[in-house]
Amino acid sequence: MMDIALITANANQLRYILEFGDRNTVFYITTMLIVTSILLQVAVGVCLIFKGRFDMAGDAKQYQANRLNNYVVMGVFLVTIINVFVATFTISPKQGSGSS
User: Could you tell me if residue 70 is inside a domain?
Assistant: First the structure.
């Protein structure tokens, strides 16, 4: 299950890329992926809050609860896939730069 560590890591990655990233194609792709991941994490968190408070009495409510659960599972899957791409495109510090 997603937790605060993942959203904190994404926020830190976003800060890093905005601060140190070169404005190239990879910069924009990574920024877009990180922002999308953070937004999806917030949406999944809100869905989990509603899911925890859901009254499942009756067949119609059970259908809605199952549908909400499917959205949560899809959201978690998408966040996982997006974060794999974020890790792939993450910009590392350039070798040889900085003071010696």
Answer: yes
